[in-house]
Amino acid sequence: MGCGRDRDFGKKDLGCVCQAVRAIKDIQDAGDECNECRNDCFLEPLGTMVSPANRVNTRIFKLYLKNGDTFKAHIKGKPWKSPFFRVKDIFDNCCATLQVVKPEHHHHGGSGGGGRGDDLEDADTMMSEWELTGDCITVDLDCFCAIQCIKDVYVDLCED
Predict the structure, then answer these.
(1) Spatial CB neighbours of 64, under 8 Å, sequence gap ≥ 6
(2) Taxonomically, which superkingdom (predicted)?
């Protein structure tokens, strides 16, 4: 399966973002195939985007709007937005419930926390752990033109 539109007359065409999020959901649920691309959203099994493959349950990804901007969601009670998501459910062809995920920063010296605090855009290069924010968003996957898988990670799915 590739990131394109498979033409099958008689079925609704599904965009590549929709196909990728469906694949991520299936992989998170259970998958056992392999793919040679190390950061391909279709890469199976879950955990192959990390080395070594530890206990993981989530494939973190970003979505991009048709104008090229990164899609971000507000985190309730926080002054910033997150561009990172975990698929929770997919339904009605290409609608999905996404959990907003944020990185837990572990700064090593330097300036510390990055002054503005309104955006987590470059956080994927600075973090070592991820956590769910408790916020979910329902989206129409046909509104996006690109998806970028970031990393396979373990997140605590049960809130205390």
Answers:
(1) 70, 71, 144, 145, 146, 147, 148
(2) Bacteria
Could you tell me which residues are beta bridge partners of residue 150? none
* Number of other CB atoms surrounding residue 63 within 10 Å: 24
Residue 83's nearest CA partner among 99, 103, 63 is 63
pTM: 0.72
Distance CA 63, CA 31 (A): 22
The pair of three-digit structure tokens given for residue 49, joined into one six-digit string: 């985007």
Chain centroid offset of residue 136 CA: 13
Per-residue pLDDT of the chain (160 residues; tens, 9 = 90+): 334 444 444 445 667 899 899 889 888 876 444 445 666 787 777 777 766 556 788 999 999 999 999 999 999 888 889 999 999 999 988 999 999 999 886 544 433 333 344 455 655 545 568 889 989 999 999 999 999 999 988 888 875 4
Q: What is the DSSP letter of 81?
A: E
